[in-house]
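Internal tracking record. Fields below are filled automatically when a chain is submitted to the structure queue. Please do not edit lines marked as system-generated. If the sequence contains nonstandard residues, flag them in the REMARKS field before resubmitting.
Queue: standard
Priority: normal
Entity type: single polypeptide chain
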Amino acid sequence: MLTYNVNRISIDKKTRSSCVVAEVEARKKLWEAEEEEGDDTDERRKQKTGGSVLGQIHLDLAKYHEMQRFTEPDSTGYDREAALYHLRHAADCGNLEAIITMARVALNLPHDVLPDLVLEETDQNFDMGVDYMRMVSSFLIHLSGYLQNF
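SYSTEM-GENERATED OUTPUT FOLLOWS
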């Protein structure tokens, strides 16, 4: 019978970071590269707003907080701070649904995810909402150009 030491087996695979900071930095570089080069392929668009497993996980965690999956049975409500934390990380990772929701939350517009979440009306929250709206509009402009080719 052969035995293998699992620690010694090397598997060649494409590694991807599971760190939010690394993913956000990678996406920021893509946005800056587009501004400098004006180059926007379908793959780059997907990398900027979508295709992030980590972003989808954070969005799902925000929704699970809303459904009170992480609260004690006798508690009322959910941890809004934790839900907002995960929603913001999902948006920063490029999840389009989270970007739209964060923009609407920050601008105090109606939203479907975490509908009872209201942020204080400050200049900082307003600027954050406008920044997220710019990301959404940029994606939609590129999407409309792509759809015109069909």
